[in-house]
Amino acid sequence: MRDLARRVWIVTLASLLIFVVYEIAKTLLFPNLSIVSSHVITVLVVAVMTFFVSRYALGRYAQALAEIHRQTAITEETNRLLAGVLATMREGVVIVDSQMRVALVNAAAASIFKLPAEDVGMPIDRRSTATVSEHGGEKPGTVAGLAGSAPSTRAYRLTDVTRDPAVNAAFRRVIADKTPVELRVEMAGREHRSFQLNVAALGTDLAVGVFFDISQMERLERVRREFFANLSHELRTPLTAMLACSETLITGAIDDPANRRKFLETLHRHATRMSELISDISDLSAIESGQVVLSLEPVRLRPVVTDVIAFFESQEGGSITVSTSVPDNILVQADRTRLDQILFNLIENAVKFNRPGGSVTVSAEQHDQLVTVSIEDTGAGIAASDLPRVFERLYRGDKSRSRKTEGTGLGLAIVKHLVHAHGGELSVVSELGHGSRFSFTISAAAQTAELAG
Ligand code: ADP
After folding, report:
1. Average pLDDT, whole number, for the chain?
2. 333 close to 399: Cβ distance less than 8 angstroms
3. 42 CB contacts (<8 Å, ≥6 apart)?
4. Does 396 contact ligand 1 (Cβ within 6 A)?
5. How far, in Å, is the centroid of ligand 1 from the Cα of 360?
6. Residues of the chain with pLDDT under 70
7. pTM (predicted TM-score)
8. Which stretches within 199-332 are classed as H helix?
9. Ligand 1 centroid to 439 CA: how many Å?
10. Ramachandran bin of 243, using left for φ above 0, alpha for ψ from -120 to 50, beta for the remaining angles
């Protein structure tokens, strides 16, 4: 605009100069021209000059107006994009001004701090804030919002959003020092959540805080740490026993015909356990990393169950009764080998954690396209506090009891992954002292399909 005004001045001065030159030239060239003729010519010349100057000035004005429209469109588009980005961000964004009033909250921040939906956007109009400082009056913020956000007439302070003193102190420090601050924030509530908060200065009088939800990351990190701690413990136990047995043999027991067989058998048992543990771990990691590809086909459920039960009956020696009530016509869409593995693990647990003379029942029922398979036992059951953890890797409930039974603590984790890979769900109900029922769902296959196996 200033550039335009300068140009108008230049053009006006130039016109004046041209007019003066014209008057001198006219007087010198036509000294005898009558006053009327002279005025007529002058009026004509001035009219022509005014026409061209006005045209030039109006042209420049139109250009300036077009530029303003272009800039406004760019700003509106930028605002629209920014609103879109802020609305879809999973991180909570809060912007506050130098008086600790909230200038903007995005949808994620509103959900983190349980703010009403109409407060998403810009609770304080930045332009009206500028007016406040210019005129010194304390006016409440007027309606404004990024494109797409609902208008709000409420003016929030940061303390209305969160009372956490650490968060408020971080924003105050950034407003004062203009240096970024990073901190970890915990939020207690129905579900405990933790955030990494990064606060940085935005222009001269604003501070922007971004809340990254790190609860899931921290949970996974804790599970990973526990897994490795448990794994090294599980591996150390058989290894220590194997070292002790081999040392005893080397230091003389090898020549003791009465005991050397006992030591060798112990050595073999622990080596077998280590080998099972390692094979379960590699199986589990292959399933978890998606390396195991299921080849799904229609499988008749009853023969698979009968085969697994037959194996346990041959092993058990008859102390536990295993029965089945799986209708013969149930067909499931499954990977035959993996279905076998699921049933094997669940029936093995039902037998292993049973009481002498107890029983195991495998049943199945179909509702529409879903088959539910249940393995029920009359064993020791699982304590309510242990139930949510039984599917964790390496988890073995009631240590004293579990240690008496062989097991890696990986069986149920493998089963859970395999059931999920089949598109089903695994669940358990159990009562301590009365037994447990593990159930999984699996898709039914069309009856007309050709059978596997
Ligand atoms: P493992 O059987 O090798 O110990 P699992 O992952 O199969 O490992 O089982 C984890 C834990 O869940 C077991 O150690 C046991 O405490 C508990 N559990 C599993 N199945 C049963 C069951 N049918 N009855 C009682 N407890 C069970």
Report:
1. 84
2. no
3. 23, 26
4. yes
5. 15
6. 1, 4, 122-155, 316-318, 398-406, 448-453
7. 0.59
8. 215-250, 260-288, 301-316
9. 14
10. alpha
